Each structure stands twice: as structure tokens, then as C-alpha cells.
């Protein structure tokens, strides 16, 4: 077993060697600019880009012409929201999103609120982190121009009822943007069946390179138009100017092709490992709580709260395992995860949460080791925890008058 | 964020981790912080003839909070009540090389020291 063990695959993934292999020639001998129309170097690059476009489109059941390459999911989210709001401003000034979206959507929405006077509805989620389609329907007004709801959450892995939301959007004639960064390549995504009009995703979450993403923009029924946010050479049908990063796009395409071929078996394998990790920890430790939906969640996600133990200290105790904590004690705000708060998880348990993100290169041996180490460190930290001691003495921690600082 | 070596050492080998019985003769207990804020410290001292002969802590919090309270027990042991009251959070920050975002851990440790001293004094006076 090699250390450190990587279990933070929601953050980013290790690039698949097959992806790197596909990319390499495009850094050296095949270095052309895909926009060069007059020579073989340009044609070769353009052909590579168009091939990648097909590979990516196939994974999400789109037409290759409906893809706009960007620098990543954050840019795609920005382009979708800002581009639609700018283009459809005369039609309305209201958009609908949810409280557990990624900050690339939330902060873009907030910026549009303050700078452009846009009205934004932030829908709550239920205690599993799911958006209710009825809430979406009820929030729509005659001024609503866009619904932006994520496919699956990056912290808790909960998968939203995307198809139902897409159906409502169609019925009401409102555009539907879906931030599918965590879902593409992990679960089946079909922009036709799901009624998605715009969709953001990126290569580095699916074993591809960092620095490239895409925005799917529907061409037919309806034809979606977005105002470009980057002016220049008019690349990507005028929606996103800038020379295409051919090697990255080739890698993105290869990554999507591999996901298309392997997703069915890979998701089953990862879900089984994830379930074993969950069961192994829960068997030995009391008062461990699952955050998110018990079944409707990404196959490689596990988010647990360990009562009486603070998340950051837990991570410090298992430094040989790369994990993520929902407590942002390192940030200046000291606020725990807004996603967990939106689920109604108390601040105490939000401070105690750990996110496990399995991936293509995770092994059974690593999972066994992780189970053992998590049990050890939680036991040790609970011994050290005054809260655990009080709870064991039968004191109801909620009844204590804490001095909130 | 990387932790300083001293924080890591206190975290891996906490000094004086544990509890005294609260009603034990000569014991003062201070509990500060709140679970909602992500850190709670319990500091206890055992006093004989105005001198702290033993100290213990339990902490729910990040590595820096654990290290701050562990260090506090180490420093309090052997000090008189008056000397212990002079321990400042800035001393803890310096000793553990705490970054700005972790200064609140040292503040909490100082508060816990004061709370334990006050608790002892209150108990001694009520006798």
C-alpha cells in the first residue's frame, strides 16, 4: 500500500494514464492551433478537438455542436448564469437556485443580485439534501428566466430529482441549467431525458486534466442563447473566445470515453467499497451519522459526522489519508459547512463531519486501512473530548448553557 | 495549512490528558467554549497550599486547540495560583507558532485557565 492514501476524489482525481497518453502528442509534434484554417497543423488540431467533442457529447447524449469549451466548471457556471441573465434580461429578472449549490453558482447568483439587480430564489433542501420539484414549481413566476439546480452535491453526494425539475422547466418554458460537475462520468447523464438546457462539467473530476471544462448549450427545442463573457476571436460559435487548449481537450475527450465504457462496472465497484467503508466504521463506533441521502447519492461518496469529535482534529490524526472536513476551522470565518447547515445538521455535528471520496484507483486494502485508522482516531479523540465525557455522565449537551464565542 | 512541529507533538502526545473528580478536595474546573463554535476546553487544577500540584485537560476542537490546552496544563503545574493567572494567550501563540486564524485557540486556553482558577477560589471561599 502506498501512502498517503487518496480519498478526496470529489476535490480532484488522479489523471488516468490512458488519458495522459492520448494528450502527450498534442503538447509536442501536434501543437497546432485548432483555429488555423490554412495548414496541416491547424487541421490536425481541429480534428483532435472535434473527435474529443464527439467523445464528450456521447457521454451526456448531446450533439457535439452543443458543447462550449471553458477553463473548468467554475467558468461554465459563470458563463451559464451571466450569459443567460444578460441575454434574456428583457424577458425577466428572476432565477431559481438552491442553498446547497457549489459556490461557483451561489456566488455568481449573489454577484448578479448585487451588481445587476437580479432577483434570486434560494430553495431550501430536505434533511437528505434534496431539492423538491414542487418547491421549484412554486417558485416560478412570469419573470423567471432560469432554474439552476445541481445534479449531485459535492459534499454529501445527494442526487437531485433532475429529470422532474427538467420536466417542470419545460412545462413552464423556463431554461434549466444543471451544474453536473460531480455527476458526469459517475452516474448516467442524459441531457435529453433530463430536460437540461445548459450543463456545466469538468475534466479533472473524471480522471482528466485540470484546466478544461465544458458548458452544454442546447441548440434545439429550445435554441438557447447566451451572451459571451469573454470577447475575442469568436471561438466556440462566439460564446467563448480564446485559443482552445488542444491537449487538455483531447484529455477531456479520452476521459469521457473511458467513463462511458467503464462507468457501469466502476460505479458498482465503488458503491460496494463505499458501503463496506460505511458499515465497517458504523459497526465499531456509536453515534456516527450519515449526512446526505441513504440511497440517492453518488456511488463514491460518504459523508459522516462523528459526534463529540471535531473534524479538523480527526483529519490531523489520520494525516496519511487525504480526506476533507466539513468544518472550515481553517478559514477566517470558522463557520462549518453551509451545505450541512442547509440540511439542518446542528453546528456541533457539522463541525464533526468528514467527507470520504473514493475513486477509480481506490483499493480494498486502502479501505480496510481507513476503517481501522478512523476507528482508532475517533476513539482516541473521544477519550480526549469533554463533550463525550459529559454525554457518558448522562448530561444532555443541549441543556448546557455554553458561552458562545 | 501545515501545523507547527510543537502543535503536532502536543496533538500526538497530549500532556496531562484526563479528568479529576470535580468535587475532589482542592480541584478547580474551568469549561469554556461551545460545541456550536467547534471547540470546548475543560481545564482542571489540583491545588495544595496555593500551588498547582497537578493539572488535566480534555478538549473538543482542532489540533491547535488541543495543543493550546495541553501546553496550558504543562505550564500551570508547579506554579502558584498568582503565577498561573499571569499566563497570557500571546505566550501560547508564541510557543506553538500559531497562525492568525488559530489565535482564538490560545484565547480559549487563557479563558480556561482563568475559569479553573476562579472555580478553585470560589470553592475554597465557600468552605
pLDDT averaged over residues of chain B = 95
Cα-to-Cα separation, first versus last residue of chain A:
43 Å
Can you tell me the CATH class of the largest domain in chain A? Alpha Beta
The percentage of residues in β strands of chain B lies in: 15-25%
Poorly predicted tracts of residues of chain A: 329-333
Nearest-integer average pLDDT of chain A: 96
Strand line-up of the largest beta sheet of chain B: 1-2-3
Q: Fill in the CATH topology of the largest domain in chain A.
A: Aspartate Aminotransferase, domain 2
Describe the structure.
The complex is a heterodimer of chains A (405) and B (127). Chain A is of the alpha/beta class. Chain A has 12 helices and 13 strands. Chain A has helices spanning 17-23, 40-60, 73-87, 103-116, 133-139, 162-172, 246-284, 311-317, 338-342, 347-350, 364-383, 386-392; strands spanning 5-6, 67-70, 94-98, 119-123, 144-148, 175-179, 198-202, 213-217, 288-290, 301-306, 321-322, 324-325, 353-357. Chain A is globular and about 80 Å long. The relative contact order of chain A is 0.15. Chain B is of the alpha+beta class and 127 residues long. Chain B is built from 5 helices and 3 strands, in the order H-E-E-E-H-H-H-H. Chain B has a 3-stranded antiparallel sheet. In chain B, strand 1 (27-34) and strand 2 (39-48) form a beta hairpin. The chains are: A alpha/beta (405), B alpha+beta (127). Chain A binds chain B through residues 308-310, 312-313, 316-317, 327, 329-332, 334, 336, 346-348, 351, 383-389, 397, 402-405, and chain B through 1, 3, 8, 11, 14, 17, 19, 31-42, 58-63, 65-66, 101, 104, 108.
Amino acid at each position: 500500500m502506498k501512502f498517503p492514501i487518496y480519498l478526496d476524489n470529489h476535490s480532484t482525481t488522479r489523471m488516468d494514464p490512458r488519458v495522459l497518453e492520448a494528450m502527450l502528442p498534442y503538447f509536442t509534434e501536434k501543437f497546432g492551433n485548432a483555429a488555423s484554417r490554412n495548414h496541416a497543423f491547424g487541421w490536425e488540431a481541429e480534428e483532435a478537438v472535434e473527435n474529443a467533442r464527439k467523445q464528450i457529447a456521447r457521454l451526456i447524449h448531446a450533439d457535439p455542436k452543443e458543447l462550449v469549451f471553458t477553463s473548468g466548471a467554475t467558468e461554465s457556471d459563470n458563463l451559464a448564469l451571466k450569459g443567460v441573465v444578460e441575454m434574456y434580461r428583457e424577458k425577466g429578472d428572476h432565477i431559481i437556485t438552491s442553498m446547497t449549490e457549489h459556490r461557483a453558482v451561489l456566488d455568481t447568483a449573489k454577484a448578479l443580485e448585487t451588481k445587476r439587480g437580479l432577483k434570486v430564489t434560494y430553495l431550501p433542501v430536505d434533511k437528505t439534501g434534496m431539492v423538491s420539484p414542487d418547491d421549484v414549481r412554486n417558485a416560478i413566476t412570469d419573470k423567471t428566466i432560469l432554474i439552476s439546480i445541481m445534479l449531485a452535491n459535492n459534499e454529501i453526494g445527494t442526487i437531485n430529482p433532475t429529470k422532474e425539475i427538467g420536466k417542470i422547466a419545460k412545462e413552464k418554458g423556463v431554461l434549466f441549467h444543471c451544474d453536473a460537475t460531480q455527476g458526469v462520468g459517475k452516474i448516467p447523464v442524459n441531457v435529453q431525458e433530463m430536460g437540461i438546457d445548459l450543463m456545466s462539467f469538468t475534466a479533472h473530476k473524471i480522471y482528466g486534466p485540470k484546466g478544461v471544462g465544458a458548458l452544454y448549450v442546447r441548440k434545439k427545442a429550445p435554441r438557447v442563447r447566451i451572451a459571451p463573457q469573454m470577447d475575442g476571436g469568436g471561438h466556440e460559435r462566439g460564446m467563448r473566445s480564446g485559443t482552445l487548449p488542444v491537449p487538455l481537450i483531447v484529455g477531456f475527450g479520452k476521459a469521457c470515453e473511458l467513463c462511458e465504457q467503464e462507468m457501469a462496472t466502476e460505479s458498482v465497484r465503488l458503491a460496494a467499497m463505499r458501503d463496506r467503508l460505511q458499515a465497517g466504521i458504523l459497526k465499531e463506533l456509536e453515534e456516527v451519522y450519515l449526512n446526505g441521502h441513504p440511497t440517492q447519492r453518488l456511488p463514491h461518496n460518504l459523508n459522516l459526522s462523528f459526534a463529540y469529535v471535531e473534524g479538523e482534529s480527526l483529519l490531523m490524526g489520520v494525516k496519511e489519508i487525504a480526506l476533507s472536513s466539513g468544518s472550515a476551522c481553517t478559514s477566517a470565518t470558522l463557520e462549518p459547512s453551509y451545505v450541512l447547515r442547509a440540511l439542518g445538521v446542528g453546528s456541533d455535528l457539522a463541525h464533526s463531519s468528514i467527507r470520504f471520496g473514493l475513486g477509480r484507483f481506490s483499493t480494498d486494502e486502502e479501505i480496510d486501512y481507513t476503517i481501522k485508522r478512523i476507528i482508532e482516531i475517533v476513539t482516541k479523540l473521544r477519550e480526549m473530548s469533554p463533550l463525550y465525557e459529559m454525554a457518558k455522565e448522562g448530561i444532555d449537551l443541549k441543556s448546557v448553557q455554553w458561552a458562545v464565542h | 495549512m501545515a501545523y507547527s512541529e510543537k502543535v503536532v507533538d502536543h496533538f500526538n502526545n497530549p500532556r496531562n490528558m484526563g479528568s479529576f473528580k470535580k468535587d475532589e478536595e482542592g480541584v478547580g474546573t474551568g469549561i469554556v467554549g461551545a460545541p456550536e463554535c467547534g471547540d470546548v476546553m475543560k481545564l482542571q487544577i489540583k491545588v495544595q497550599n496555593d500551588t498547582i500540584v497537578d493539572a488535566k485537560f480534555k478538549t473538543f476542537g482542532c489540533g491547535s486547540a488541543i495543543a493550546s490546552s495541553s501546553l496550558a496544563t504543562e505550564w500551570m503545574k508547579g506554579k502558584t495560583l498568582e503565577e498561573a493567572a499571569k499566563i497570557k494567550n500571546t505566550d501560547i501563540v508564541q510557543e506553538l507558532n500559531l497562525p492568525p486564524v488559530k489565535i482564538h485557540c490560545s484565547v480559549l486556553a487563557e479563558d480556561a485557565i482563568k475559569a479553573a482558577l476562579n472555580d478553585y477560589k470560589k470553592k475554597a471561599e465557600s468552605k
